[in-house]
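Form P-L/3: holo structure prediction, ligand adenosine monophosphate.
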Amino acid sequence: MAPPGAGKGTQATKIVELTGKPQVSTGDMLRSALSEGTELGVEAKAFMESGKLVPDEVIIGLIRERLKQPDASNGVLFDGFPRTILQAEALEEITKVSTVISIEVPDDEIVNRIIGRRMDPVTGDIFHVTFNPAPEEIQDRLVQRKDDTEETVRSRLDAYHKQTKPLGNWYGERGLLISIDGTGSILEVGALVTSAVNTV
Ligand code: AMP
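OUTPUT (holo model):
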């Protein structure tokens, strides 16, 4: 878990490399549904574009289906899920959570990071115009997420503090939470993530 723009997706890629477990990103699944125009995409669109959370029952249904895939049988890395206590409770019924990594970044830094964020639609790689520029040859194809505007970021931060942050305590009480300082460089945060994964 992490506020938007804290490096959740970037560090998730690193954990996938370290563990070989597939990444299950509810944000990515919803964005694919949106671009394919499926029923799920139509349902999720307004929530996502305004920075609000998609209803719990939609997300839980999505996760239930995803975990039935053969590649999920040896465990997965959830990215951006669960995001509410209700989702965490539903997850407890479905499978066992071994560790929760929380990447902590103060709000002031988040807005700067998000506005400069760019994504490569071909590989899904994430860059930042200043902090992590993409190679010259792919610059032309980079896109900005529709929800990476200042107004939407404020609403996503609000959702994070109200609905997701309490989950930190919830997992902390269960002895599953590892908190990481996310204010350093991608490499520095990556080193902290690596040592957290190695303790699991
Ligand atoms: P993300 O890529 O993880 O930042 O997710 C982008 C957007 O998708 C969020 O702002 C929410 O609108 C929606 N979303 C992703 N994951 C969840 C979730 N677990 N619960 C509710 N909404 C979600």
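COMMENT: The radius of gyration is 16 Å.
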